[in-house]
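Pair request: fold both.
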Amino acid sequence: MAAERGARRLLSTSSFWLCCLLLLGRRAPAAAAARSGSPPQSPGSSIRTFTPFYFLVEPADTLSTRGSSVVLNCSAYSEPSPKIEWKKDGTFLNLVSDDRRQLLPDGSLFISNVVHSKHNKPDEGYYQCVATVESLGTIVSRTAKLTVAGLPRFASQPEHSSVYAGDSAILNCEVNTDLVPFVRWEQNRQPLLLDDRVLKLPSGTLVISNTTEGDGGLYRCIVESGGPPKYSDEAELKVLPGSKVTSNLVFLKQPSSLVRVIGQNAVLPCVASGLPLPTIRWMKNEDALDTESSERLVLLAGGSLEISDITEDDAGTYFCVADNGNETIEAQAELTVQAQPEFLKQPTNIYAHESMDIVFECEVTGKPTPTVKWVKNGDMVIPSDYFKIVKEHNLQVLGLVKSDEGFYQCIAENDVGNAQAGAQLIILEHDVAIPTLPPTSLTSATTDHLAPATSGPLPSAPRDVVASLVSTRFIKLTWRTPASDPHGDNLTYSVFYTKEGITRERVENTSHPGEMQVTIQNLMPATVYIFRVMAHNKHGSGESSAPLRVETQPEVQLPGPAPNIRAYATSPTSITVTWETPLSGNGEIQNYKLYYMEKGTDKEQDVDVSSHSHTINGLKKYTEYSFRVVAYNKHGPGVSTQDVAVQTLSDVPSAAPQNLSLEVRNSKSIMIHWQPPPLATQNGQITGYKIRYRKASRKSDVTETLVPGTQLSQLIEGLDRGTEYNFRVAALTANGTGPATDWLSAETFESDLDETRVPEVPSSLHVRPLVTSIVVSWTPPENQNIVVRGYAIGYGIGSPHAQTIKVDYKQRYYTIENLDPSSHYVITLKAFNNVGEGIPLYESAVTRPHTDTSEVDLFVINAPYTPVPDPTPMMPPVGVQASILSHDTIRITWADNSLPKHQKITDSRYYTVRWKTNIPANTKYKNANATTLSYLVTGLKANTLYEFSVMVTKGRRSSTWSMTAHGTTFELVPTSPPKDVTVVSKEGKPRTIIVNWQPPSEANGKITGYIIYYSTDVNAEIHDWVIEPVVGNRLTHQIQELTLDTPYYFKIQARNSKGMGPMSDAVQFRTPKADSSDKMPNDQASGSAGKGSRLPDLGSDYKTPMSGSNSPHGSPTSPLDSNMLLVVIISVGVITIVVVVIIAIFCTRRTTSHQKKKRAACKSVNGSHKYKGNAKDVKPPDLWIHHERLELKPIDKSPDPNPIMTDTPIPRNSQDITPVDNSMDSNIHQRRNSYRGHESEDSMSTLAGRRGMRPKMMMPFDSQPPQQSIRNTPSTDTMPASSSQTCCTDHQDPEGATGSSYLASSQEEDSGQSLPTAHVRPSHPLKSFAVPAIPPPGPPTYDPALPSTPLLSQQALNHHIHSMKTASIGTLGRSRPPMPVVVPSAPEVQETTRMLEDSESSYEPDELTKEMAHLEGLMKDLNAITTA
C-alpha cells in the first residue's frame, strides 16, 4: 500500500509538470512560425502531438523464500490510462483464473504463497510488465528476475577447535548463496550478538577476533528461510590461556576473487593466526591502503576488508599481508567491478513522411558491454532489408509506411541487468509539413523539402524518365524537366523506388536545384525495381511520372558462406572443423579452403579440403585457434564464414616448475619456493603442485604433499633435526602430473636457538694487514644459545662505516681486498640475526707499504669448537650472455666458477637475474630467481635494449652482481598507427596537397617506409583506395593532380622490416576551389611545356628547382629577382678571390722559411758515421732498439710553431714519401680521434705527419703472434732500403696538442690490416713519448694515470725466428714513415720489466744533457746503418 500511495503522489506531480510542458510546447511552434514568417498552426490543425507514455515504476530483481508473498512493482503513465499485463519468461500470464497471482490497481503483480520445490518451480523466472494504450501503441518494462531460495543445505559446518586467548578463531557455515541472508548464529543455544569483534562474513562464516574466555562455548548456525529452521552441528570452541611459545603464522581465512556491481559493497575476508599475534594490512596493486582515514574502506574483525559503494576505480588485485615480526605471509584476490547498462543517448521522438528513411539513435554503456535489441509496440524488431541495425546499436527504418507508426524501445542487457528507453514515431500526411526543423535522426536522403509550402501552381510530371546506367548494385536515372516548367532551374526532384511486389517505397532526393539525375545505390542483383520521379517547387510537390520498371544485372554467383561451421577439440593437439554446403552459389562447389590461426598471432595458415569436415593435427596444447572456411566454385572463392574459436584440450605439463629453492627455517622445518613451468609448457590450467621429499639417507621412503595451483611456496614441518632432505616439485593439471624438478637438498639445523634478542659481541677479533688487503678472523660469541645468522664486517680509512660486508654464520675469517697501501683502516665486526645486529667489536690496522714484498703468513685460528670455514666468499657468475629468441624473449646464460668443471649444481644455491632498460631513464630493475645456469626472460618490449646481470646466493651468503650483458629484442610489426596526420593545400597549387604525420608511438623497430591511402569514398574497400608509397622515414609527402573542390580521405600505414602496422583513422580534406589567381601559374607552366600537353609527372619525390621559371607547377621568376641573384653571385666571387690571393701570399712566405730549416735538419742527420758492431753480424747488422732510451726531448724552446727535433734517418717505403696534400686536412682532422684498421696509404702518410705536440711511436716486435696483440694484425713485408735517402716531407698539425694520435701501418694497402701500435701520454712534461702499450681490439681509450704495459712483455718465446718489422719514431714537429729494421730476439721478461721501470722513472733537469747526447749518438748509429 505504501508503494501504491507513493506511485499516486508521483503520478499527480508528474501530471502537473506534464501539463506545463504541453502548454509551453503548444506555444513554441507558433513562436517559431512567427519568426520564420509562416502562419502559425491552428489548434484544429491535423498535426498530431507526441503522447507522453512511459513507466513510472519498473519491476526490480527480487529474492524470496518458499511460502512467502512477493510484489513486483509496475506503474505506467499515459492519457488515457494504459492497460497493464505481465509476461513470465516471454509468455503472457493469465491472471483472471489464477488464485495465487493477481494484478494490483496500480499495475503491480502480487504473488501469494510462493511455490518452490526441487521439481516444481512455477514462480521463479523472469518477469516483464507490458503497458498498452489502444490506437497509440505498447511499451514494455525492464526484465526482473525472481529468485526463490532453495532448501537449506550445509556445504560445511562448524567443527570443534581451540584457540589461545587474544588470537582469532573461525567457525565455518557455508550454505547456498541465496540463503546467506537468512543465516544467524547461536552460542550455547542463545542468539549471538555481532559487534566489532564478532563478524559474520558474507559466506556465513563466523569470525571471532581477540578471543576471550567468554567466547568459549558451543556454537551452531541456523538457516531460517520461511519454513522450519535448519540447525547445523554444534561445535565447541575452547579458549586456552595465553602462551609465550611462538607458533607459525597461517591463514585461517584467505580472500577469494569477487565480482561486484557498481554501488554494491564487498567484503574481502582475511584472518590469520600465530604467535606473536599478527597484524593485518592491505595493499592494492602494490600500493598500501589507508583504512584509517578512508570512509569507504573499513577493517573488520580479524582483518577482513570491507569496501562500500564500489566504483570502477576499486577494481584490481588486493593483497592481504599478515606480519607478526617473525615472519610475513600474504594472500591475494581479484576484485572485478561490473556496471549495469546505462544510456548515453536515448532514442528521441520523430516526425516523418511516408517513404522517408529514419534512424533511432541509442548509445549505451556498461560492463560487460551490453547487447542491444529493439522492440516496436512490444514486439521484437527482426532485422531485414528495411529494418537494419547500424553503428552497432542504432535502428534504421527504410521507406516508411503508415504501419511503422508506434513506440520503439531500445533494450540494453548484460550479465548485471537490463534497461530500456523508448521514443514515438508519427508519420504525417505528405501535405502536412513537419512542424520543427529536421531532427538529426533523418537521413541525408530525406532531409530536404520539409519547409511548409505556400499556395500556387504545382509542377507537372517529369518527362522521359530513363535508366541511363544499370549495374548489379546501382541504377542511374535521368529525366527531362516537366512540361509546365521547361527551364526547371528552381525545381528539385524526389525519386521513389521499391522492389516489384513490395508496397514499402523508399525515396532519394537530388542534391541541388536543377539537377536531373540521381544514382540509386545498395540495390540487389537480378532484382526488378519500380521507379517514379516527382518534381517540387516552392508551392509543393507536383505530379508523379509514370512508373519505370528496371531490372538490375545479375551478379557473378560466387559461393556464400558455408553454414553451420563448428569446431571442437578432439585431443590436446588436434581440432576437427565441420560445415555444410553453402545455400547460395551458381555452379557446383569444387573445393573448400580451411583457414586457421593461433590466437595472438597474425600468421594465418590454410589447407585445401574436398569434404565437409577436416581434422587439423600438430597444434599447440591448450591453445586457442580461430577457423574460417571459404568455398570455391568455377568463378573463384566465395564469401568467408565468420571466425569460430576453439581451444585445444589440456594435457599434463611438459616441463617442471622453475627456480626451485630451499630455505631452512629451523631444526624441524624447511620452506620451499618455486615458480610455475613456462607458460608454453603448462598445457592447461595449473591446478596444484605435488611436493615429494625424503631423507637423503633413506631414498625409498618418499612423502608427498599437494598444494593449490595458486600457491608457490610451502613450509614442510615435522622434520628431524640436523638431517639432510631431498625435495622435488611437479606441476599438476586436470589431466595429471607433469615432470618433476631435479632433487634439491637442504639440511635442517641441529638445534633451535633463541632469536628473541640480538647476538652478543663476538668473543675475539684479529686482523692481519697486507699490502692491499687485510685478513680478518674472529671467534663466535661466547653465548652459543642465541641464533647467529651471519656477521657484518665494516671497514674504512679512519671510519668503519665506509663499506659493509655480510658473511655466513659458519665463516670465521674473511679477506678484505682492494685496499690502499700504507693506509690506516678501522674495522668493526658485529653478529646479527633476524632481530638485528649485536654489539660491535673494533680493531684497527695499517696496510703495508707498496715496497713490502714479504710472504703472506698462513693464519690459523686456535678454536677447537669452530668448524673449518670456507675461506672464499661467493664469487659472482661469469660469462653472462644474452641470446635473443624473439621480440619479447631473451635467454640469459652464465657460468659459476665456484662449481666443478661439469657445472653441476649439487647444493641449495640459487641465482638471481635482474634486468632493465634505460628508456625511460628511471626504469626499475626486475628480478627473478633461477636454480639452473640459464633463465628465460619473457614479456619484454620489442626492439628494446636491455641489460642483464646475475648474482648467486647460497644459504645466507650472496655474491656481488656480475658483469652486465646486453641484448636487443627483435623487431615486431608496428602496433600503433602514425600520429598527428594532417593534410594542407600547397600554396599556389590547388591541385597539390601536402600530407604530414608523426611516427607511430609503438614503432617496434626502424621505420622503413609509409603507405598513404586516399580516396573520395571513406566507405570504399581498402583495396579500392589509391596508394602512395613513401620510402624511408620521411614525415611529409606531396600528392599532385587532385580534383578541385573534392573531399578526399587519407589514411597512413607505417612499415618496418617485419611488416605493416595498423592504419590511422581517416582524415578528411577538401581541395580548394580554383580561382583566377590559382589558375594563372598553372596555365603558364603548362603552356611552356607545349600546346595541349603537360610536363611529364616527375613523381612524388621530385624536388622543385630553385628557379621558378622551369617548375611545372610553380610561378616564373621575375626579371628583378634574376638581376639581384646575379649581383649577389658576382660579389661573393670577387670577395672569395681576394681572400684566396692574400692567404696564398702569406703561406708562400712561411713555407720558404720552413723549407730552409728542413734542409738544414736533413743535412745534420745524414752524416757518414758507420755502425760499430760485432764482426760476426751480417749486412744489414742486427739492431736492438732499447726502447727505454728512446726518449726525445725538446731542445728548441723558441716560439717557432715548428720546433725542429733531432730526427732519425730511418729508411722509408718509397710509397710513403708522397707529398702531403693540404686539401686532406679537414678529412684527416675528422678521423684523428678514432682508431681505425683500414685506410688508404696516402691517408696513412698524411696522418703520420699530423702529430704536433703529442708524438707517437709505432713499433712492432719480433715473434709476436697476431692474436696476442690486436685483431687484424698484418704480415709486414720487407721494403727496399734504397728508397731511404730522400728527406721526409713535413706536415704541421694546427691542433696537434689536442687530438689523439692515429696509429696504423705503412703497408696498409697490401695487407688491408693494421699493425699493433700503442700511444700513451707522456708522464713528464719534457718526455716526448713513453713505453707503448697494446691497444684493445676496438676504439682505445687512454688514461694517463695508469701505467702502460710494454709490448715486449707479451711477446712469444720463439726468439730465434727473425722477421722484418717496421718502426717509426715521431717528433714534436715532424714525423717519418716507418722503416724496415731487422729486429733480433727480445730479451727475457725480467729484463723487459726493468726496461719498463726505467722508462717510467722521471728525469731530472741535470740529466737532460746526458740523455740528449746519448740519443744523438743513437741517431748517428742508425744513420750509419742506412748509409752502409
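--- second member of the pair ---
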Amino acid sequence: MADRSAPSCHLRLEWVYGYRGHQCRNNLYYTAAKEIVYFVAGVGVVYSPREHRQKFYLGHQDDIISLALHPERVLVATGQVGKEPYICVWDSYTVQTVSVLKDVHTHGIACLAFDLDGQRLVSVGLDSKNTVCVWDWRKGKLLSMAPGHTDRIFDISWDLYQPNKLVSCGVKHIKFWSLCGNSLTPKRGVFGKTGDLQTILCLACARDEVTYSGALNGDIYVWKGINLVRTIQGAHAAGIFSMNACEEGFATGGRDGCVRLWDLNFKPITVIDLRETDQGYKGLSVRSVCWRGDHILVGTQDSEIFEIVVHERNKPFLIMQGHCEGELWALAVHPTKPLAMTGSDDRSVRIWSLIDHALIARCNMEEPIRCAAVSTDGIHLALGMKDGSFTVLRVRDMTEVVHIKDRKEAIHELKYSPDGNFLAVGSNDSSVDIYGVVQRYKKVGECIGSLSFITHMDWSSDSKYLQTNDGNGKRLFYRMPSGKEVTNKEELKGVQWASWTCVSGLEVNGIWPKYSDINDINSVDANFIGQVMVTADDYGIVKLFRYPCLRKGAKFKKYLGHSAHVTNVRWSHDHQWVVSIGGADHSVFQWKFVPDRKLKDSLHIAPQESLVDSNSDESDSDQSDVPELDSEIEQETQITYRRQVYKEDLPQLKEQCKEKRKSAASKRRERAPGNSIRLHFVHGYRGYDCRSNLFYTQTGEIVYHVAAVGVVYNRQQNTQRFYLGHDDDILCLAIHPLKDYVATGQVGRDSSIHIWDTETIKPLSVLKGYHQYGVCAVDFSADGKRLASVGIDDNHTIVLWDWKKGEKLSAVRGSKDKIFVVKINPYMPDKLITVGIKHMKFWRRAGGGLIGRKGCIGALGRTDTMMCAVYGWTEEMAFSGTSTGDVCIWRDVFLIKTVKAHDGPVFSMHALEKGFVTGGKDGVVALWDDTFERCLKTYAIKRAALAPGSKGLLLEDNPSIRAISLGHGHILVGTKNGEILEVDKSGPITLLVQGHMEGEVWGLATHPHLPICATVSDDKTLRIWDLSPSHCMLAVRKLKKGGRCCCFSPDGKALAVGLNDGSFLIVNADTLEDLVSFQHRKDVISEIRFSPGAGKYLAVASCDNFVDIYNVMSSKRVGICKGASSYITHMDWDVRGKLLQVNTGAKEQLFFEAPRGKKQTIPSLEVEKIGWASWTSVLGSCCEGIWPIIGEVTDVTASCLTSDSKVLATGDDFGFVKLFRYPAKGKFGKFKRYVAHSTHVTNVRWTYDDSLLVTVGGADTSLMLWTYEMEGHRDSRQCDSEESDLDSEEDGGYDSDVTRENEINYTIKALSTNIRPMFGIKPHLQQKEPTLDERPPVSRALPQPEKLQTNNVGKKKRPIEDLILELVFGYRGKDCRNNVHYLNDGADVIYHTASIGILYNVATGSQSFYQEHNDDILCLTVNQHPKFTNIVATGQETQQICQLQLLLFMCGMQ
C-alpha cells in the first residue's frame, strides 16, 4: 500500500503526567470553578480534582515558563520561551484563546501579572534588558514599555491598592514603578542599614504602600514606599520562592520545604513542613503556593503538586507527580495491562496506570536510567543504565533480580524476545549482547556488526532474528541467539517482525522528509492491526503515519504539546493509547487513539484549536496528489516584487553623495523649467497578477489601478482622474462598502496602504510599518471601520487595522506560500478567511493575534490552490474558487461540497443579493443562484459580441478573467490582457479601457503630424493609439516576437518595428500589414530611426553593438556603423540626414556619417551647433544636468526634446518623469518631477505639436498621456505632481543665525562637556551595569536622588540636608522659539532654561519649578483648550533621542 496520504484516524491528548516546578515559580492556582491551573512543557493544564479530569490549552509552540491568573479567576495568561515568544490569554473553562500578545519580547516571557480590575497585563522579557511591558490585553495593544533591569527579574506585581503602580524584584534589586501616560518610570528600593542588599525572589503588595518580599536568605523584607522598613528574619531557612496574597493573609513557600501562613499584618499563623509529612522527603523544595479558603496548593521543584487542607495540615494530599529534572529517555509498556513504565536521569523508575491516570509505583536506582523493557509475561522489568550496566526488577514489588555490568558506555535499548527466552541489550559501544532469561541472565551471544552506537532493535515473531539500527542510520540483521550477522537478504524474505520500533527500513521510508538529517526522529512504534504508526522527533512533535509507509515524504497528522525533543513513544498493549515522553520537559503524555469510524461521531466536538494547527494538520511535504499548478498561476507565483533600490532609499542614497552635492551647490545651476505637465490619461489596467481590483463607485464611475496610479474613470465623458499618492506599483485595491472610499496597497521596502476618497481624490489614511516588500491583498469590513491586508514578505503576514486611527489591531504570519485574497466576514468583523497556494484558512481575532484553522476537507478531496473567495448569505457560509475550476462551499471550517464552475482556474467571484457571479481563465462570466445549485446564465467574452462604442479591440476571444464587479445594471470585467469590459445583462460587451499585457513596454513612437502614437512591447503586439479625446486603441497586430522599438516614417505612412530576435519590419501605418522585413542580426533591435525629410534611410541599432543603415527605396543595407563597445541605447539624425548621433550602454556618445557609417570625432562645442532632427539622447554636454546625484544607482533611460528646443523630458529607472530646461548644462540640473509609473520609465516622446507628452513604463505595461501646460497656466488641481526635490539649502538664502542653529548637534554635547579628567564611574551609573549591546555615552542626566546609596563606610552618620532650588537666572533663547507664555490671565509667565520649567509670578517676582526632566528642555507649549487650563508640555533631549519624553505638568500646583 504505497498510499502517501495521511491516516484518517487521529490522537487526542487525554492526560499529562507532571508539573513544571524547575526554574519557574508562582505557576499554580485555583480557578473560580475550583479547578487547578498550571502548565507542563508547552501545555496549559486545567485539572479538576473532583472529577479527576484534565483539559488542555494548546496555543503555545514552545515551553511555557510563566502564568498569571485574572482577578476573576477564569482567564489565564501564559508566556513562553522562543525566538519570537508570545503571551496567550485564554479561558480556563473553554480552553480557547481570548487574546494573543506578540511582536515585542524576545527570548522568552519570565513573569506576568494582571492588575486589580484585570484590564491590563504586565510582562517581563528574558532579553538582556529584561524589558517590562504593559498591555491592554483585550485589544492586544502595547501601552508602555521600559527596560526592566540589567539582571534577571523574578517577580512582578501590580499594587492592588494604588492604580498605575507596580513592583518588580530580582537579582540584587527591587524596583517600584509608576505608569504615567505611556511612560514607565522605576525607582530603586533603598535597602539602607535595615537589611543586606540581596536577591529578592518574590513579592506581594499590601495596603498603605506596604510591600512584602521574600529574599534569597529566607528573610522577609517589608517595604514602605521605596524604603526597607523592617525584616522578618528566618521566616524560612533558605530562599523564599513563592508568596501568595489572599483575603485571609499571605502564604509563603521556600527552598526549606516549608509553607508558612501569615495574617494580613504578616504575623505568623502556622507553619507546615512538608519534609516531615508522610509524602515528604529530604530536599523537597517549594516553588509555588496558592492559598484559597481552607485549601493550600503547593508545587515543588520535583514536579509534584500537593493539596493541603488547613485543619489536617500534616496529611497533604499528593495530586500530581512527574519526573524531576534530568532527561527522560526510558519508556516501556506492560504486555498485558494498561501500565507504562518510565525511567529518567533523575534515577527513578516509575509505573503509571493509564486507566487511573496515576503513579502507582516508584523506585530509586543507583544510576541514571536510559532505557527499559518488560518481559513477555510481564513479570520482569529490565532497565538499561547510563554507566553501561543493566538491572532487572520484579514488576510486582520492584525488588532486584539481577544487576549486570558488561559494558563501559550507556545502554540505549533493551528488548525481550517474543518467546521470553532472551534479552537483547544494545549499548553505546556499538554492540548488542544477548542474555538467556532462564539461565539467570547469562550472556549467550554478541552482535558486533555496527560501527556506531545502537539506537533501535526489533525481534522477529519467531525469536530467530534481530534487526538493529545504529547512529549511522545503518540497518543490520543477526541470527539469534548466536548473534551472527545475516548478509544474505534472501534468508530474511518471509520474516515477520514482532514489533517495529526501528527508524530505518523500507517499511518506514515515508517518515523521513525528502531532505533530512537522519537523526532527528528519535522513536517509532507501529500498530500492525490499525495500520498506523507513531513517531517522535527533535522538534517536539508526535506524528501519526500510515503503516507501512514506503515512499519518502508521506503525509501525516501532527500533534504539539511537548516543547523540546520527544525521546520515546509507544502504543499501549491494546492499542487504545499512545504514550510519549519528553526529554527536557521530562513529562509523560498519554494520547487516546481515535480510529476513523469514531471520527464521525466526534465531529460535533470542535477540535481544540491552537495557533499551530496541532489538531491534525496535513504535512506540507511534497503533495504528490495535487495536480500541477495552472501555467498562469505558476507564472504569477514566480513574479518577484523585490527591487534593488526602493524609492524610500532615495534620501539615504542622496546623503551618501554629500560631497557631490556640496560641489553642485556651489555652482550656479539652471532653474527648473517654468512649463509643466499634468497626467491626462492612462491606457492600461493591471490584470496579469492582480485580481478583484475593479469596482463601480457610488456615482457610477469605475475605479481600478495600473502602475502607481489609482484611476477613477468616467465612462460617459471618457475622462480619468488620478490618485497619485503611491510611488510604486499598486498590487491590490478594495472598495469601502459605501463605494466612496478605496484602499490600495503598493510595493515598497516598508510598503504602505492608502485609503482615499474617489470623489475628492484625497487620502484619508496611510498605513505603514508592518508589511515588507509589498501588500498583495486588502479588504474592508462590512461596517467599513476595519481593513485587512496581506503582505508579500516570506510569511505573507496578515494585519487587521482600524484604518481611521491608523492603528494595527492584530497580526499573524499567514503562510509560507503566496496568499491571493483576504476577506473579512461581513457579519462578524473579528473573523476572516485567506486563500492562496494550497491554502484555505479561517481566522478569528484574539487580541493582538489571529488564530487560524485550516479548512477541514474531510473525505471530499485535498487542499487545492484557491484563487478567490467570498462570504455567503450567513456568517458561517463561505465560497472559494479553486485553480482547477471548482467552487468549494464551506460551512464554518468544513467543506460541504464542490461544484464545477469553469474550465481552468476560477479567478474572480462576487456575491450578489441573490446569487453569485464567477469568472475564470476560460473567459466565461457565469451567474449562479444563491446555493450554486444551478448556473443561470453565462456570457462568453468574444470579439463578435463587442458593441460599436468600444474604446479599442479585443485581442483574443475568451481572455482570462481576473476581476468581476456588478452595479448599475452591468457586469464589469477585468482581463489578464489588461482590458476592462462592461457586459450588458442582455449580452453586448463594451470595451472601456485597454493596455499592453504582461511584459515590458519599450517601443514608443509619435506620428509626425497626427495625434497618434504607436507602441510595441514584449507581449508580442504592435498597437496604434488615438491621442485625441476619444482615447482609444485604433489597431493592434500580433507579432511573432516581442519588440523594443518603433518609428514612423517622416510622411507617417510607414512604421518600422524592431524585434527581439534581431529582425525588423516595416508595416503600413494604417493597416499594420507588412511592407518589408529583414534579419541581419541575432540580438535585440534596440532603436530604429528614419532619416528626416524624405525618409530615404533607415538606421537600425542592435544590442550587438552595431548600427545598420538601409536604403528604404532599394531595401538594401548600405552601411554599417562600427566602433561602439557596448549595446546601442539611443540614436538621432541631424536635420540634413547625413549624421547619426549614437549613445551606448557604456555611456559613449559616438557620431557616424550616413549612409556609409564612417565614425566621426566631433568636439562637444560643435555638437551643440549642429541642428538635430530630434533629440532623444541622454549623453553630451547639453544634457549633462539630467543625470541625478545618484547616477550610479539609476539610469536615465529616455529623453525627448520639445520642437522649440526649450524643454527636455526624461524618464529614469526610478519611475520618475522629469522636465529640464534645455540645454541642461552643468551637473545636477533642477527639474520638475512626476510620479505615476512604478519602476522604470522606458520611453518618453512629445507629440508632433508638443501638446502632449507620451510615456511608457517598462514592467507596469502602461501608456500615459500628460498635457503640456505653459508657464502661468497653473490649474490648482490637487493631482499636479511634486516639484523638483532638490533641497532648499542648495538655493542658498539661509540667514546666518538660522544656519548656525540648523547645525547645532544635540547628541555629542554630552561628551564634549568633559572639562576635567575623571576617573571611576559616576555614582548614579554604578548600579546600572550597562549591557554589552549598548554602552551609553556618559550622561549629564541629574543623578536621581532615590538611587543614591549611602556607603556604609564611616561609622558616624551625619544627616544629609536637602538642597532646595530657590532661584534660576537665565532663559533659553539661543536655539528655541515660542517658549515664553502668559498663564492665569497674565499673572504668571512660563518659560524654561537648562532642564527646568519655570513659573514666574509677575507681581511677587517669585519662581516655582518643574524638575522632572533630566536633560535640556528644548521646547514648550501651553494647552489652549479651556478644559485643560494650566497644562504645559515640555520636551527634552536625551541620549535616546527617539524617546522624547513629553511630561505634562500642572502649573501653579508644583
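Observation on the second member. Residues 658-666 form the longest helix (9 residues).
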